[in-house]
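User: Hey, quick favor. My workstation is busy. Could you predict this chain's structure for me?
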Amino acid sequence: MEITPEQYEKIRGSLPVQRGNVRLTNLQVLNAILYVAEQGCKWRGLPRRFGNWHTIYVRMNRWAKNGVLDRVFEKLQMEQIVRIRIEAFALDSTIVKVHPDGTGALKKTDHRPSGNHEADGPRRFIWLPRMLERP
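Assistant: No problem, here it is.
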C-alpha cells in the first residue's frame, strides 16, 4: 500500500522539512515504512524501488525518536488515508527454555527473577504494526 502525492499533501505538515542534499523524499520514505508495516518484512527485504533500506531505516528511527511517526500515523488516521493498529507483545526470557549450552553458562545455574521488577531490568517488547483495512 502506498499513499499518493495528493494524499501526502494532506499530511505534509506533520513531517519535518527536508534540507540539504537528500536522495529520498519524505513521501518515498513514508511509503517504504508503510510497506514494511503491511508486509511485515525485514528492512533488508525492502524492494529496490524504495531506495536504500539503511537510509530509510535511519530516517524512520530518527522520526520515531522525535515523535514524528506518532504525529504522521495520527494524521493518516484522522484524514482516513490509512488505518493502523499497533500491537505490543512482551517476551520474557525466563519462560523460554534454552539448552544450557545455548546460554553460554559454565555451571548449572540460572537467573531467577526477583520480586523487584527494577532489579530484573527492562522488559523486552516487540512492536507489531498491523494494517486494519485498505482505503
